[in-house]
Amino acid sequence: MNRLYTADVPDKADIEYALSLQYPAQMAELFAFADEIRRRYIGDGILLRGIVEFSNNCDNTCKYCGLNKTNTNLKRYKLTDRQILNCIEQIAGAGIGTVVLQSGEQAELDPNWFAGLIREIKTRFDIAITLSVGERTFDDYALWKEAGADRYLLKIETTNRQLYQNLHPQMSFDNRLKCSRDLKTLGYQNGSGSIIGLAGQTISDIADDILFFAGEQFDMLGIGPFIPHPATALSDCPPGGVEMVLKTIAVTRIITKDAHIPATTAIGSLNGNDYRPDALIAGANVLMPNFTPQPWRQLYEIYPGKRCVTEAPGTCGQCIDMMANAIGRTIDLSRGDSLKKKRNKCA
Ligand code: SAM
Ligand code: FES
Fold first, then answer.
1. Atom of ligand 2 nearest to the CA of 61
2. Which residues have any ligand 2 atom within 6 Å of their CB?
3. pLDDT number for residue 341
4. CB-hemisphere CA count at 13 Å for 314?
5. CA of 303, nearest ligand number
6. pLDDT tens for residues 7-58?
7. CA nearest 116: which of 124, 108, 126, 105?
8. Whose CA is closest to 226, among 201, 208, 207?
9. What is the pLDDT of residues 47-64, one digit of tens each?
C-alpha cells in the first residue's frame, strides 16, 4: 500500500496484487488505508452534486445500458427548459453548490440551445455546472465552456480497447479518448471512470484503468458496478462484485490522492443493497442526490433497481444526513471544485 501511495508511477503488479486481495481482514486494511488518504487530502466533508437527468434520448447502442436506442420499449422524454430550471431551483434551494446535467447521447441536442440554458443557469444561480451528455465536437465543448460550464463527466468505461469495441459497436475508443482530452484542453474540470464487472474484464484491465486515471490526472472519477438490464444484450451476465468495486475505489484513492470520487448510485443499487456507506469509508467523498422530477425519473432506467427511483425529488436530504452521521462524516454543500487544480497552482 505504501508503494502504491508513494510511487510516481505505480507498479501495475502492486495494483493487481491489491485488487486480488480476498481475505476480509486484508481488504479492511486496504479500505482503511484509502480512507486515511481521503481524510488527509480531502477532509471529512461529503460533497453533494444534484443530478438532473434531463433526457433519456440516445443514439448509441452501448450493450450494457438500458437507454440504448435499440430498447424500443422505453418511453423517451426530454424536460423543458422550465422543468430543468425548476430542478436547479430546488438544488440551489437545498444549498447544494453543483448541478450535474446528464442525458443520453444524441446528435439532435442543439448545442446553441444547451449553451443558452447554461447561460441562463449561470445568470440565475450561483452554482457550478457539470455536464454529462457524451461525445461531442471540440467546438460544442468550447461553446458550452464559454457559456459557463465548469466540469464534464465522460467515463472511459474500460481502457481495454477490444472490450470497449465489443460493448460499443458503433463507437470508437480513440474518439472517446480524444473527447476526454479535448475537455481537458478546454479547461473543464475533467471526469472519467469505469464500470466494474463487465463480462470479459480482467484484473489486469482494471489495473490499466487505474493507471490511465492516474496518468491523465482526472479531477473526478466515477467507479461503479455493472448491473444487467433485461432489455440489453448483456441481460444474462452477472452483476459486478461489490468487493471489486470497493477495492478499485480504494486503490484509485491511494494513487490519485485528491480526485473527487463519488459513492455512485450504481453501488447504492447493487443486488437491492445500498453500499454507498461502504464506498465512503473506502475512499469515496461525493454523493449525487437525484433531482429529476417524477414521472420522468423512472424512465431514466440505465439499469433496473436504481436507487431512489420512486421518491419525490429533494427527499434525499434526510437519508444523506443519516448516512453521513452513521459514518462520522459531515455534509459539505460547497461547490467542491477540483483540488488538483488548486494543488497544481500551489506547486
Ligand atoms: N450519455 C452520457 C455518456 O455517455 O457519458 C451519460 C449518460 S450514461 C447513461 C451515464 C453512465 O451510466 C455511463 O457512463 C455508464 O458508466 C453508466 N451505465 C450505463 N449502463 C450501466 C449499467 N448497466 N450498469 C452500470 N452502469 C451503467
Ligand atoms: Fe446512451 Fe447509455 S446507451 S446513455
1. 3
2. 58, 60, 62, 65, 67-68, 104-105
3. 58
4. 11
5. 1
6. 999 999 999 999 999 999 999 999 999 999 999 999 999 999 999 999 999 9
7. 124
8. 201
9. 999 999 999 999 999 999
Dist. CA 32–CA 27, nearest whole Å: 9
What integer is the mean pLDDT of 292-318? Answer: 86
Taking the centre of ligand 1 as the mean of its atom positions, its distance from the CA of residue 6, in whole angstroms, is: 32
For ligand 1, say whether the CB of 302 is within 6 Å of any of its atoms.
yes
- For ligand 1, what atom is nearest to the CA of residue 232? 23
- What is the number of the ligand closest to the CA of 102? 1
Closest atom of ligand 2 to CA, residue 62: 3
Rounded Cα–Cα distance for residues 309 and 72 (Å): 21
Average pLDDT, the chain: 95
Best of 54, 55, 68, 133 to mutate for ligand 2, by most ligand atoms within 8 A of CB? 68
pLDDT of residue 314: 65
Which residue blocks in the chain are alpha helix, DSSP H? 2-6, 12-20, 24-41, 81-93, 111-124, 138-147, 161-167, 173-185, 203-216, 242-256, 276-280, 316-326, 339-346
Three-class secondary structure of residue 270 per DSSP: strand
The alpha carbon of 62 and the centre of ligand 2 are apart by a number of angstroms equal to: 6
Per-residue confidence (pLDDT) for residue 344, from 0 to 100 = 52
Q: Which atom number of ligand 1 is nearest to the Cα of residue 58?
A: 1
Counting ligand 1 atoms within 8 A of each CB, the residue from 56, 64, 141, 275 with the most, and so the one to mutate, is 64
Report pLDDT for 347.
36
Query: What is the strand order of the sheet 151-153 is part of?
Result: 50-55, 98-103, 128-132, 151-153, 189-196, 220-225
